[in-house]
Design brief:
2 domains, alpha/beta, D-Maltodextrin-Binding Protein, domain 2, two-stranded antiparallel ribbon, eight-stranded mixed β-sheet
Length: 425
Amino acid sequence: MLLKERKLLFVSIFALLLPVIFFATNVSAQEEVELRVMTVWGGEQKEYLDDLFAKYSETHPNITVKHEVSAGSGAATYQEVLKTGLNSGTGPDVFFEWAGTLSGTIIDSGYAEPLDRYYEEYNWDDRFIDWSVGSLTRDKVTYGVPLTARGMTFWYNVEVWESLDLEKPESYEDLEAIAKKAKENGIYPIALGGKFNWMTMRLLDYLIEVTTGPELHDQLNKLETSWDRPEVIEAFSLFKKWVDNQWITPGFLNVAPADSRIPFWNGQALMIFEGNWMPPETEAAGYDTANLNFFFGPTGHEPLRITGFPEQFMINSDSEHKDEAAEFINWFTSREVQEANYGTAITGTAVEGVTADPEERPRSYQFKEELVKLKEVFPPTDQVFKSELLHEFFQVQNGLVTGEFTPESGAEYFQEQSEEWKENN
């Protein structure tokens, strides 16, 4: 066969095989991927999310999203399950996490993938409320994508509030006057669930902000100044006043946070210290959200701050599907998905401009509108201190209730523990 004919035959055969080669390459590129996503969102919300994640697979047929849930007693149970998986190499590709020291431990252990390249690829900096992204940045590296911008403050039972002819407080002294009037009329001023410590902590954190102001409060959280000081003693004294005056529902230290909502919903307690998840929780429990309203606790300081924090998605640094994980997060946090599923699969959002329907969910809408106006927030103490020091803070907090500590001895003890912790860490 002539050389020219051989070349022609080769070209013909290659042309015939080209579609086969392309198909094989395309199949390889579209290999099946199981993307494991771990969250704390159980119950009815999980059902909505499972349906939503299934829709993602419809547009990404090679990707199956496996939604794993570890719902329990707040951060404690979830963190234990998540860390066990990450430590053993069987962790999820994408996982829910809180901010502060809870995610900090995971970052320090090397299990969180830096996400700055994805922020640039997907323009995430322009998508979210400013302070929510800033809260997820550590040493100028961003490790998380904000899902929600949470704020915690005072919610009140509207029927009880109006029956007492109350107005929203303009000062902390006004708040105490409200508490006094409620108690005089046989209504507990506030319902708290002290089991697991973090709901009681919300009230104490607020009181610390009142007596210290933003700058000193931040310094205390960073252990840059002494906790054994007059402003802290004053905050502890105010907290003890709420306890001694029986302004808190009885036996609250042994009450689970979820159970503390019952006397509030039923009108036995005027207020509760909760987050912007309260409207959907109220609706899910079968109560009327029209009987629910809120105010940001006055502090007497500028800027006015409330306890705030983002919740986030992080990507496992050991995941074999990092790009697929980032693409999934980009889809989930898109304005289109957030708006279409707000109030069902999504109960809160950090996406700028996305709110609940003002007609269907007025309280959620109003809260988001007020939250984005805040210039700053301060983190809850359980996202500030690592577990060993947080344990000591909770010991003082509960000791102020039981009488184990006075405000003075509590401040002195916690400063001693802070110094010891700094020496060993």
